[in-house]
Design a protein that fits this description.
Blueprint (H helix, E strand, L loop, with lengths): L4 E6 L10 H9 L5 E6 L6 H11 L3 E6 L1 H9 L8 E5 L5 H6 L5 H10 L1 E10 L2 E3 L2 E5 H11 L4 H12 L6 E7 L2 E7 L1 E5 L21 E6 L4 H9 L9 E6 L1 E14 L2 E22 L1
Parallel strand pairs: 1-2, 1-3, 3-4
Antiparallel strand pairs: 5-6, 5-14, 7-10, 7-13, 8-9, 8-13, 10-11, 11-12, 13-14
Length: about 290
């Protein structure tokens, strides 16, 4: 892919491994006739600030260096635009990069920026945010809350948080309205899914696709230790009697009580109502 200018947005707080990203990137591109530009993301960086940098530099490619939350932040500034997004995975989970087949090795990921091809994916607009991969209410969102407050990063930290969250798991009374059709149900977790799998490899949405014209609403009816361990450590699909999957372009979720909620690995507090709809042709991402 011919590129003359690349703008890297680096989250220095992502993941458990600290790397000298500027020097690694500069060295890799030094002999490749590419102008590289950098912006270090802070906790209060907004999509508008990212847009300002993009407008100022006018790059051919914008790259997010971080985890799913970092990718989501940078992608928000690119939605419905013409500049593609590249990814260098540097987070604790890197679920979207895993979904797209982007390797965690920095050199291999940077090589894909030059040799890869763009694919255009859809997104989900949820409340006032976008979701590129997976959002959910219930068990996993509570686990992410525990994980963010813990001292152990990476898979083991997330796994321990998930097992702890079983203590707090509940079956919730939900009203689900999908494309105008309303239903009452009970669920331990509901996933709004662009992608197919969590970073652990657990396939929560086996028939999902990032490039079709809908997303999936995955209802986990029951929660057990066995199913949680499967979600964490195996690539096996969940049992059909535990899950119901609905295709959707628009959904409204109303909960009887407030339930933990997360978008792309970022905990968003407890909610009682969620509105979500498809955003077609949302963004182009460079893939292997």
């Amino acid at each position: 892919m011919p590129t003359t200018a690349i703008l890297f947005f680096i989250n220095p707080h992502s993941g458990s491994v600290r790397r000298p990203w500027r020097s690694l990137i500069t060295e890799f591109f030094s002999a490749r006739s590419v102008d590289v530009h950098f912006l270090q993301l802070e906790k209060d960086t907004t999509p508008n600030q990212i847009k300002e940098q993009i407008h100022s530099i006018q790059p051919n490619l914008v790259v997010a260096v971080g985890g799913d939350g970092t990718i989501k932040l940078v992608a928000t500034a690119l939605v419905s635009g013409t500049i593609p997004l590249g990814i260098i995975p540097a987070g604790s989970a890197n679920g979207l990069a895993y979904e797209l087949g982007i390797p965690s090795d920095p050199i291999q990921a940077m090589q894909i920026l030059l040799t890869g091809k763009p694919i255009t994916i859809h997104a989900i607009a949820i409340q006032n945010e976008i979701c590129l991969h997976l959002a959910d209410i219930g068990l996993n969102a509570w686990a992410i809350k525990k994980f963010n407050r813990g001292n152990v990063r990476g898979w083991w930290g997330y796994g321990w948080a998930s097992l702890q969250s079983l203590y707090y798991s509940r079956i919730h009374q939900i009203t689900l309205q999908i494309d105008g059709q309303s239903m009452q149900l009970k669920a331990g977790m509901i996933v709004l899914a662009n992608g197919t799998s969590y970073r652990t490899g657990a396939r929560i949405n086996p028939k999902g696709s990032l490039v079709d014209n809908h997303f999936e609403v995955v209802v986990m009816k029951k929660i057990s230790l066995l199913e949680t361990l499967k979600m964490l450590f195996t690539h096996q699909p969940f049992k059909p009697d535990k899950l119901v999957v609905y295709k959707a372009q628009q959904v409204h979720i109303r909960c009887k009580k407030r339930i933990p909620f997360q978008i792309d690995g970022e905990y968003r507090g407890k909610v009682k109502n969620i509105d979500a709809k498809i955003v077609t042709n949302a963004i182009s991402i460079i893939t292997p």
